[in-house]
Amino acid sequence: MAQYADSAHRPALRRAFSPHRRTASPLGLRLMEHAAVRTRRVLAAFCLTLHEHPTRKAPSIMWFTDFYRTAVGKKALMAITGIVLYFYVLAHMLGNLKYFEGEEKLNAYADGLRHLGEPFLPYTGALWIVRVILALALGVHIAATIQLTIKNWKARPTVYLNQVPQASTFASRTMRWTGGIILVFIIFHLLHLTFGSVGLPYEPHDVYYNVRTGFENEWVALIYILAQIALGLHLYHGVWSLFQSLGWNHPRYNHWRRYLAWVSAFVIAGGNILIPLVVLLRKYS
Ligand code: HEM
User: Fold this and answer.
1) Among 92, 100, 107, 213, which is best to mutate for testing ligand 1, by the most ligand atoms less than 8 A from CB?
2) Domain holding 266: CATH number?
């Protein structure tokens, strides 16, 4: 059914859901049924774990581990943690754009983040809460991906020769690669701009200086730009498929999902790419 989301099937979809139709088309009915089945499947996996667990008289966290054990549960958790990470990269990109407001504004913003929540929270308290949430989300996202991959391999160990990808995109086929690149990038990025330990000039309280001097090095700028391309591809397929993983995909709204996936990838990766590009342009102009 996933193939109905393809552009080749859009005219058929449009006809199937046309408001001018007086009767439901067979394709429309099949698609609606399919969407309902998917939603039911997620809910059923969830309810089954709640209902069938032997300890159900004394509710425990066990229902959650049982739900996680199913492929649907892992997908749902990947989607939820993906949403957390998505909002982080979006907020981080918007914060990064302060670079264009100049040294004073960017450094004040970075300092403000450290003081966030005071006096209710200690210095850098809010930042640590975000760091812990991020680390947990990233850990679960990666663990679920690895376990799901192993599960899939075990279910279908045969490698097909001359396999022709069906209803897939370059972004969807390279999800594990782009995910791996982003992980390596995050490690490099933390060493570069948080710990200042990659051998580039670093001033602990001068974020603007660290970013500028970092991107004036062409290799560093190139690493960041390539990593953002990987992030864009990962976000594109991630945003597109998370609705499916949560059972929220109705063919009628597929074009909106595609649009959101496109905009997210373009805005987040593009916004970040602007910074090394502009630093390099300024260096050479
Ligand atoms: C051009 C792109 C980027 C720039 C200029 C940038 C800039 C920065 C800077 C300056 C810091 C240190 C902040 C501070 O010390 O106050 C930082 C931290 C961080 N960045 Fe980025 N970043 C970029 C892209 C990304 C991307 C794509 C991700 C995730 C995929 C990311 C994840 C993080 C994380 C997790 C931290 C640590 C936050 C913390 O410890 O509080 N960054 N970034």
Assistant:
1) 92
2) 1.20.1300.10
Question: What is the total count of domains within the chain?
Answer: 2
Pocket test for ligand 1, best of 187, 194, 210, 268 (most atoms within 8 A of CB): 194
Query: How much is the pTM?
Result: 0.80
CA dist 283 and 218 (Å) reads 10
pLDDT at 5: 46
**Rounded Cα gap, residues 200 and 210, in angstroms:** 8
Domain coverage including residue 33: 1-69
The residue written with tokens 């969807």 in the block is: 172
| pLDDT value at residue 253 | 87
Let me know whether 10 and 99 are in one domain.
no
The answer on 252 and 272 residing in a single domain is yes
Based on the domain organization, do 24 and 145 belong to the same domain? no
Q: Which residues of the chain have pLDDT under 50?
A: 1-5, 164
Whole-number Å distance between alpha carbons of 270 and 249: 27
